[in-house]
Amino acid sequence: MGKVHGSLARAGKVRNQTPKVEPQEDKKKRLVGRPQKRFLYNKRFVNVVATQGKPRGPNAQSQ
Q1: What whole-number distance in Å separates Cα of residue 21 and Cα of residue 28?
Q2: Is a pLDDT exceeding 70 seen at residue 15?
Q3: pLDDT digits (tens, 9 = 90+) for 22-63
Q4: Rounded to an integer, what distance in angstroms lies between the CA atom of residue 53 and that of residue 55?
Q5: Where is this region: Disordered (predicted)?
C-alpha cells in the first residue's frame, strides 16, 4: 500500500510561506433591491441640473 495523503509534517506549508497582507478597510456596500432603485431614481430624475446643450450621459468623464 502506498501513501494516500501527505504526512502531517507538511501541513500548513503554503499558508505559512505566503506573505502577510494587512486587512483592507471596509468599503461601503453597494445598495441592492428597492434602495438601489430609489438611488437610481434620485440620480436620474430628482437631482437633475438643467443646463443648456445636450444632457450629459451617465458615463461622461469630463465635468
Answers
A1: 21
A2: yes
A3: 999 988 899 999 999 999 999 989 988 888 888 888 898 876
A4: 6
A5: 1-34
Stronger pLDDT, 43 or 2, i.e. the higher one: 43
Q: CA–CA distance from 55 to each of 23, 46, 48, 49 (Å)?
A: 42, 15, 10, 9
- Lookup: cell for 41: 431614481
Helix (H) or strand (E) holding 34: helix 34-41
Q: Between these two residues, 44 and 2, which has the higher pLDDT value?
A: 44
Tell me the C-alpha distance between 44 and 55, whole Å: 11
Q: Which helix (H) or strand (E) holds 14?
A: helix 13-17
Angle subtended at Cα 46 by Cα 43 and Cα 49, rounded to the nearest 5 degrees: 85
